[in-house]
Amino acid sequence: MRISTAQFYESTAANYQKNFANVVKSSEEASSLVRVNTAADDPVGASRLLQLGQQASMLDQYKANTDTVKATLGQTESVLTSINNVLQRAKELAIGANNAGYTDADRQANASELGQIEEQLLSLMNSQDENGKYIFAGSKGDTVPFSRNSDGTYSYNGDQTTLNLPVGDNMSMATNSTGWEVFQQAVNTARTQVTSSMNDGLVTLSDGQVSSSVSYSNKFAGGEPYTVEFVSGTQLKITDGSGNDVTNEATRGGVITTGTNQNISFRGVDLTLNVNDPNAVLTGRNFTLQSKPDTFNVSRGPGNPGTVQATGTTITDPAAYKASFPSGSAVLKFTSDTTFELYAAPITADSKPVSNGTIVGNKATASGVEFTLDNTATNVLVAGDQFNVSVNTHETQNILDTVSQLKKALNTPTNGDAVATQKQLAAMTAGMGNLASGIDQVSAGLSSVGGRGSALDTQSDTNQALVLANAQTQSTIRDSDPAEVMTRLTLQQTMLQASQLAFSKIAQLGLFNKV
Predict the structure, then answer these.
(1) Neighbours of 209 (CB within 10 A)
(2) What is the pLDDT at residue 266?
């Protein structure tokens, strides 16, 4: 086979260019120690590097989210610790006021400090972060979570939404603790009441204190209202709402003595019986024992075009109330100056009324609840007027209300009157029970924050291990082995020199060189 001179030069030039390109590429690789610069260098490796790069970006985002959650949890923990310390001081004041040697003036001094504690608690529970967002308002960060009502009680204006951020491939973490969860859901131990038709002060029975929520829910709630009747000077009888005799479930089967501070436990409720006059006739006396009825706090909508206020509420139809009145909170909206609709709060574009009606006189009755309005010649209802209605079932109690009630009890003078003293002691017992419940709720909130912090530390360690593994894997795929690349470069340089030498030698083998 004959090889023309042109073919020889073309073949030699192509071979030289190939060797030269290899040397250049290996030189660049030796300089940067990066093996994969483009997908052409290693298609499979480049694809894997792309995946690893996406994972690295996600891990960076997880770290940023982790830092955010840690900062928020740290602030929440600090505020909750301060609140817990303030509540402990309130507990000390309440216990101290139970001292038999305390006078009305001493208790009122404690009440004054409780008033300062109440204001301090309100400020702490309305704490804001560095961005001005309220940390206990749920997702409504621009809304003040707790406000004082006109009657001295408190309302929660936030929601129950936690703000979650992903901190791992399969893990999200709540950045906040809602005021509803931490402060609003403390079990109310004073949610029963006792009424009597004979209030001569000779015999009193306290409103009661829930000592067992399980017994209360499973037994007490299903049998109320109860009638507590004295059948003799040493025996009382308890009948449930259906007329069944349930006395055997009370302490000592209903046996009593003449004297004060007699404890009676019945279906998870502790009551105190005081026979203040040993000569008092007990037979025929009776009391009614039941849960406190639901109460309502009604406030005007901030943008109401009218000036009418709601002055009172009454449950007129218990069956209708239980069947359809929204739990938690509702909105009473007037569609004209005489017609209205009741909605579950908050109202959205898809909201539908649960009931509607027409005003009769100055009464608007919706879902078994009668609202009294002060609509007069000067206060006029206008279409579009709205009233926000919060329902208090007395099953739970805001810790601010607990401190406020304790303050009120200590501020009430007894002037040495036995009945007034017994009422004050009962109110203080209820207050201390609810204070202990509130402290437990705040402690549970602190535990939740601590638990999330611990889980976050564990996840952070996991993420950091993934970051190191990711970087190592990327390096294995992308980076060059210095020894291998230098050996290869030396070989390629030698081959380049050999091809140059071979070209020069063969180029001298032409026929004209032999003539």
Answers:
(1) 21
(2) 97
